[in-house]
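Lecture notes, part 5. Sequence design as translation. It can be helpful to think of inverse folding as translation between two languages: the language of shapes and the language of residues. The source text, in structure tokens, appears below.
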């Protein structure tokens, strides 16, 4: 599987980090608006969706990670922790751009 991302429906890619690896497949793309892809790792089959919405002061970014089953509390908690770290780093990066 290639590790390069392309915003094209059905393109397969993967993420690798210190916590492991996740296999993904692009589900939907609406350029400059929405990107959805599957997230498959450690028995979790879920979907991550990013949405951009124009506002009067810039752009709002929304991320939704859906598809957790009730018996996947550990995966849910791990994802919650990981996404919090990701967004904290993104926020730091964006403040340096101003």
């Amino acid at each position: 599987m290639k590790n390069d991302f392309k915003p094209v429906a059905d393109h397969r890619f993967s993420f690798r980090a210190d916590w492991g690896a996740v296999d993904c497949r692009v589900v939907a793309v609406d350029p400059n608006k929405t990107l959805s892809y599957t997230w498959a790792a450690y028995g979790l089959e879920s979907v991550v969706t990013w949405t951009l919405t124009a506002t009067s002061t810039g752009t709002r970014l929304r991320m939704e990670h859906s598809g957790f089953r009730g018996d996947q509390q550990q995966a849910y908690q791990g994802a919650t922790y990981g996404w919090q770290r990701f967004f904290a780093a993104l926020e730091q990066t964006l403040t340096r751009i101003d």
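The translated text above is only one of many valid answers, since several sequences can fold into similar shapes. The mean pLDDT is 91.
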